[in-house]
Design a protein that fits this description.
With 80 residues, this protein is α+β, with helices and mostly antiparallel strands. It contains 2 helices and 2 strands; from the N terminus they run H-E-H-E. It has a domain of 44 residues. The chain has a two-stranded parallel ribbon.
Length: 80
């Protein structure tokens, strides 16, 4: 990566875009977790690049702050 990632100039994102991405990811998530029957926070693990180095600390902070369980999943990306 040459430079840090961040907002793209001139690109606006609204709630519909966020919902579309969330639906796409949930549809392709490993079916080990049933996310439709309970309130929880879903943390998608990245295994190839930009890994979360303090994942356990992040999960603990999310659980403490929001009072919800955190489910960790790895999306099943389609083969290219």
């Amino acid at each position: 990566m040459v430079s840090t990632q961040g907002p793209l100039p001139g690109k606006r994102v609204d709630g519909r875009d966020v919902r579309a991405v969330a639906d796409y990811l949930v549809d392709r998530m490993v079916p080990a977790t049933d996310l439709t029957s309970k309130a929880c926070i879903v943390l998608f693990r990245r295994t190839l690049n930009r890994r979360i180095l303090n994942e356990a600390q992040l999960i603990s902070a999310l659980q403490h702050h929001y009072g919800l369980p955190v489910e960790v999943g790895c999306p099943a990306w389609p083969a290219v």
